[in-house]
Write a structure and sequence with these properties.
The chain starts with a helix and ends in a 14-residue tail after the last helix. The protein has ten helices and seven strands. It has a domain at about 110-260: 2-Layer Sandwich (Nucleotidyltransferase, domain 5). It has helices spanning about 5-20, 40-55, 60-70, 80-90, 90-105, 125-130, 175-185, 210-215, 235-255, 265-290, and strands at about 110-115, 120-125, 140-145, 150-160, 165-170, 200, 220-225. Strands 1, 2, 3, 4, 5, 6 and 7 form a seven-stranded mixed β-sheet that branches. A hairpin with a 4-residue loop joins strand 4 and strand 5. By secondary structure, the chain is of the alpha/beta class.
């Protein structure tokens, strides 16, 4: 079976609809008395995924495109403001769908994870930093990989070597990467259940005796490059090619899924747009895995 956008959209809609039938509490809350939405929650999840895959950063342009080209998939489409409100309220549903799809792949049981964070700008002018609703969460930070300062946030991602997202968090630009990683595992202790000897690959920022001791207590083996003040660490020869994997995954988010052009202006808007892109990547890997594609992270079949 060849992968294509139509088959991916259909498969995601069916799986999302089944999820909501099995667990109706995952749907966004709405009054028991009132008008039933014409666009179902499963259709909303599918529509959000398609927007990210097709590279539409403007919701108005996306709705116009969908009205012109996707009527055979979505008989009813809301206006852009209504779509935006529905999408922000569905953040929890998007997150649950991401986890469900990830667990249903053969990659979920991989014994090697990579971890990193990447900068995402939310504004460039001083006025934006002072007046934005993101002020206080978004902050000034420095990206050593690109040698630049920025005002915004940092998505932190734990994924398999094939790019399947396992856990993720969205923090301010100055948040400590080690504390964020520990927090992700503390919030979801089930991620580590039954994973004795899991290997975690990170960069030089994931250091510290207390930090590594905590990972060891969770049966996580940390591989990272040695810092200047340290002796050579075990596994150093294999780190360089593996470290490029996480950079490649970040480039998938930024290059193919337009993560840095999210256009979010509020915390809810940014969260929904980041979740859209994580959902798009997870859904593509899930579909590639189920259709037997050799490259799981390939998006070319779906981005047009």
């Amino acid at each position: 079976m060849k992968p294509d956008l139509g088959s991916l959209a259909t498969a995601l809609y069916v799986r999302s609809d089944d999820l909501l039938k099995e667990s109706p509490q995952l749907a966004p809350w709405r009054p028991s008395v009132g008008i039933t939405p014409k666009l179902s929650d499963a259709e909303l999840v599918t529509l959000a995924m398609l927007q990210a895959l097709l590279g539409f950063t403007s919701e108005r342009r996306w709705i116009r495109h969908a009205r012109a080209h996707l009527r055979h998939l979505f008989p009813y489409l809301p206006m852009a403001p209504g779509y935006n409100k529905r999408l922000r309220k569905a953040a929890g549903l998007l997150q649950q769908t991401i986890r469900l799809l990830a667990v249903e792949t053969t990659l979920w049981s991989d014994d090697v994870w990579v971890v990193d964070s990447t900068p995402v700008e939310c504004g460039r002018s001083r006025e934006t930093a002072l007046r934005s609703e993101l002020a206080g969460w978004a902050e000034y930070g420095y990206c050593a990989s690109h040698s630049r300062y920025f005002w915004g946030l940092r998505p932190h991602l734990v994924c398999t070597v094939h790019g399947l997202p396992i856990a993720f968090a969205l923090t301010g630009a100055k948040a400590d990467e080690r504390e964020t990683l520990l927090g992700m595992f503390e919030i979801e202790p089930g991620l580590l259940h039954g994973r004795c000897g899991q290997t975690l690959i990170g960069d030089k920022n994931y250091f510290g005796c207390d930090f590594e001791q905590q990972l060891a207590e969770w049966n996580l083996r940390l591989l990272r490059p040695a810092r200047k003040s340290e002796a050579a660490r075990p596994g150093a020869p294999m780190l360089k090619p593996l470290r490029q994997i996480i950079e490649s995954i970040n480039e998938t988010f930024k290059g193919q899924l337009d993560l840095e052009r999210h256009r979010g202006r509020t915390p809810g808007g940014v969260i929904a747009r980041v979740l859209q892109r994580v959902l798009a990547l997870t859904a593509a890997i899930w579909h590639n895995d189920h259709t037997g594609q050799p490259v799981k992270r390939a998006l070319i079949a779906y981005d047009h």
